[in-house]
Amino acid sequence: MEAVKKALWYIEAHSAEPVTLDQVADASGLSRFHLARVFPATTGHSVFGYLRGRRLTEAARELAKGAPDILSVALDAGYGSHEAFTRAFRDVLGLTPEEVRARRGLDNLALVEPMRMSDLPVVNLAKPSFRDVGAMLVAGIRQYHRYSELGGIPAQWQRINMHIGHIPGEVGGSAYGVCTAAAPGDRDGFDYIAGVAVRSLDDLPEELSGLRIPQRRYAVFEHKEHISTIGSTCAAIFGDWLPNSGRKTAEGPLMMIECYGQRFDPNSGDGGMEIWVPLQG
């Protein structure tokens, strides 16, 4: 997970400074979107969750040593006020800064220690196939997701599953999860449409959205495990394969497509699926 290692190194090296997701993404060699998918799948933390946890853990150590000025500790941790620091500290560690200083100890605190590179999971990613896919029309439920909050995607699939089989003009037997850039200038999240291929975008029910996907060449990866582990496969694709492949993702709003074929069981999450990465050229 070379890209994640670079991101972790950057966070540790700059943990005492204001750090943006763009900076971490640049250091890792990934886009914001891909870093947001790769980092949590690999470390169990969002980028900012890990950064915040590391800063507050080091702050807790200073307080446990009896730091006389809590505001100075707060400022060193990147917080502009005692109130903001206390709120974040309690949310992450379960106690207030004053309580930790009074205890003079770190027992039973949910500390976030530096991630060791040997702790990162290893995914045996099979080589992709390359596929030219013609223009597609996809109809489904569109929802905006922040990079730091991807937990709403399964619920989105539950909603669209009630429509599949009844959407006008459905073709084929596959379902698609399409990740696209959100509005221009939005750097906090992306749009995700869960749906099916259709012949036309006319006459769609009001609750459904349509999406036109141009003809593309894709690197196609098989994900054979349970759907809950898709993040690990994405981490291997964008954290290892893409940086080392010499290839670049296509320009434009399309980021990635998940393809759920007829073997996939939406009730159990088993059966496998494919991840399509749009390529330049």
Structure in words:
With 281 residues, this protein is an alpha+beta fold. It folds into 2 domains: 2-119, Homeodomain-like (Arc Repressor Mutant, subunit A, Orthogonal Bundle), CATH 1.10.10; 129-279, Multidrug-efflux Transporter 1 Regulator Bmrr, Chain A, CATH 3.20.80. It has 9 helices and 8 strands. An 8-stranded antiparallel sheet has the order 1-6-8-7-3-4-2-5. Strand 3 and strand 4 (189-198) form a beta hairpin. Helix 3 (32-43) packs across helix 9 (230-245). The protein is elongated, with a radius of gyration of 22 Å. The two termini are 26 Å apart.
Task: Provide keyphrases for this structure.
eight-stranded antiparallel β-sheet; 9 helices; 36% helix; Multidrug-efflux Transporter 1 Regulator Bmrr, Chain A; 8 strands; elongated; alpha+beta; Arc Repressor Mutant, subunit A; 281 residues
Query: Under CATH, the topology of the largest domain is which?
Result: Multidrug-efflux Transporter 1 Regulator Bmrr, Chain A
Termini distance? 26 Å
- The domain count comes to 2
Architecture of the largest domain, according to CATH? Alpha-Beta Barrel
Taking all residues together, what is the mean pLDDT? Answer: 88
**Main sheet: which strands, in order across?**
1-6-8-7-3-4-2-5
Elements, N to C (H/E): HHHHHHHEEHEEEEHEE
Strand content: 15-25%
Radius of gyration: 22 Å
The CATH top-level class label of the largest domain: Alpha Beta
Outline the fold blueprint:
Elements: H1 2-13, H2 21-28, H3 32-43, H4 47-64, H5 70-76, H6 82-93, H7 97-103, E1 129-133, E2 136-146, H8 153-161, E3 170-181, E4 189-198, E5 209-213, E6 216-223, H9 230-245, E7 254-260, E8 273-279
Antiparallel strand pairs: 1-6, 2-4, 2-5, 3-4, 3-7, 6-8, 7-8
